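Researcher: I'd like a structural prediction for the single chain below. Treat it as a standalone chain; there are no partners to consider.
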Amino acid sequence: MKVVCDTNIFISAILFGGKPEEIIKRGKEGSFEIVISNFILHEIIKVLTEKFNAPFEIIQNVIMDLRSYVTLISPQKYHLKIKLLFSKKMIPTIGYSNVGCQQMLTI
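Model: Treating it as a single chain, here is the predicted structure.
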């Protein structure tokens, strides 16, 4: 199974841990294949630089580690249909979409 993790998942996993870190750990362990685009990769760099003022050396290490376990893809144009599952408070908790890979989860 291929899973697309967005920038928020990576940033949260790197800086805060919790569920996002568990997702990344499972991907590294081979439970599924994590795929990202160059856009997401550049967005991770931008957020670490601009929002968190991370030093270049840290960003370089993060990106080198990330590239060791993700697959870079070039997304094609597609029609995105998302089915959101809502909690009792009507807050989106999980989104699912078929986007050119088998699945995309957003948490």
